[in-house]
């Protein structure tokens, strides 16, 4: 709004107040019974919590108002200036107004301006007990209208206007409109009424994820779908599935059925999970970790097991000097590319035990020989391992995927450089030869925050892990805190795509899946808040927790 419009609006408000006050004084002088008069035209909000003021509550006339006898006002309610919606994550901007807000009533409609918003419209209609009326051009009292505004900008942004007894949610993309419906749902469920005014909202980070280890511990389809619904309401947009590890391979395979655990998800179940995720604008990101963490695959293919110079098997590690090793992993990557339609893929790349020994070349002479053959006389096992990661990135890139790998899969000692478009999933600084996050950022890489100090929920709390608390995330963590508790310089903020809260199931029986859901409830909400807006929250932790309890 320009300065001229601001001045004009202010002058209009002053004139309206003067007219109302004058009319009120005149009516009192005539002995007329007085109710409460409207303070402004156009309407605004209501008290926090959705409570409406009693219509018979009288106001006090301004004694300084000039007398007048010719104005006869129409009695109506008066509403205080609305307060910002209380949601998780909190909205970034709210312009308050006077008015009753919006509360769903029997017979109210959800209408859309574009057929592409039908799913969003049907969902919010069901959740609020409204009628989904489809594409409509007419306007009715109580309408919730969803619109694609056709403009540019962040496709996850939205504007929600509550005015005149109606709600209008618009955005440049379907995802943003969906997030607007999540705000509306929380407002109604938390307080009964959406406050009058205009919300303008968008996330600070494009990646807001939750990662689940289903390899070590099987989780049911219904449990996963329940978490997706929870994630959607909190405006997360990624679900990572780590479904292959030493303990088990947990998704049905047609290319290699021999590797699949008895307790697994069928492809039909995964398709349903993906469909629920897509309906909430959540991308499912699969992870087949290699060349380490392949114990379940190697149990069915012991000939591909990596062995040291003494013939001792190296746990979870595949022998990357063998062509058959690359073939079986690529078979799986190619197979599941058709099952997971999203644009992201996690290649793992961490904890390859051949590089955890003092002298990898001496301990694994077959790897050293393969490295020299591929990269010349100076080739090392680290070079060969980096080359393996690049080759797997080529495989998923051919399917139009963007690949990421754990930070300890990027080897400082390697003369072979990881592919430039590989994103860094930074989780730890505890490994041998650990590199600081700035090493990756200064090289221009895009980084995702999986900081194990704050975001790792490891069942059984092995080693130094403790269950993270929502309070600690809420009060101490931001996406720039990639390692430990210290933030990287602000100049790198644009390279940090976002982050992910992760559940790892090292001791699978330490908690039931119901206990996991309860344990991650507040950490998920705190993570959602800080990925949407990393600034200091307006609410204290106590207030935030009370809000979470109220929203359910």
Automatic annotation (TrEMBL):
Name by which UniProt lists this protein: Beta-N-acetylglucosaminidase
Pfam family, one: Glyco_hydro_20b
Ranges where the Glycoside hydrolase family 20 catalytic domain occurs: 208-532
Lineage: Bacteria, Bacillati, Actinomycetota, Actinomycetes, Kitasatosporales
Segments for region (Disordered): 45-108
UniProt similarity note: Belongs to the glycosyl hydrolase 20 family.
Superkingdom of origin organism: Bacteria
Keyword terms: Glycosidase, Hydrolase
Active site positions: 351
Signal sequence extent: none
Ranges of residues in domain Beta-hexosaminidase bacterial type N-terminal: 85-201
Organism (species): Streptomyces pluripotens
Keyword Hydrolase: yes
InterPro entries: Beta_hexosaminidase_sua/sub, GH, GH20_Enzymes, Glyco_hydro_20_cat, Hex-like_dom2, HEX_bac_N
A molecular function (GO) term: beta-N-acetylhexosaminidase activity
Any one of the GO BP annotations: carbohydrate metabolic process
Biased composition (Low complexity): 58-80
Keyword Cell inner membrane: no
Chain ranges passing through the membrane: none
